[in-house]
Automatic annotation (TrEMBL):
Subcellular location per the Swiss-Prot or TrEMBL entry: Membrane; Mitochondrion membrane
Residue ranges of the TM segments: 6-25, 57-80, 86-106
EC number: 7.1.1.2
Alphabetized UniProt keyword annotations: Electron transport, Membrane, Mitochondrion, NAD, Respiratory chain, Translocase, Transmembrane, Transmembrane helix, Transport, Ubiquinone
Enzyme class: translocase
Record protein name field: NADH-ubiquinone oxidoreductase chain 3
């Protein structure tokens, strides 16, 4: 029990010393107003929080996320091509792509209706 307590205290002391050294070494002498202010996607963080949000920006972000997830799900399908039956691989891939395309068209039509 004493050994574990000693190791824990020693670990905390080492972590504190490393953080203290990093804090001392990372101090910058030039203070810039723009670098010290938080970046909030082009919004002024000190202004009103009730400004209207751009729907076009939101839809582009959603489409990016959809295609980002699509790539992560399609790459393993391509790597298992020679391990599985070609018919089941083809059916699974086509079904997945159709679901993504239907979602993309739905988002696109909803965005087109809201922009006009």
């Amino acid at each position: 029990m004493f050994t574990m307590l000693t190791i824990s205290i020693l670990t905390l002391i080492i972590a504190y010393v490393v953080m203290l050294i990093a804090t001392i070494l990372s101090k910058k002498t030039i203070m810039d107003r723009e670098k010290n202010s938080p970046y909030e996607c082009g919004f002024d963080p000190k202004g009103s929080a009730r400004l209207p949000f751009s729907l076009r920006f939101f839809l582009i972000a959603v489409i990016f996320l959809i295609f980002d997830v699509e790539i992560t799900l399609l790459l393993p399908i391509a790597s298992t091509l020679n391990l599985t039956n070609i018919f089941s691989w083809f059916f699974t891939s086509i079904t997945f792509l159709l679901i993504l395309l239907i979602g993309l068209y739905y988002e696109w039509f909803q965005g087109a209706l809201n922009w006009s």
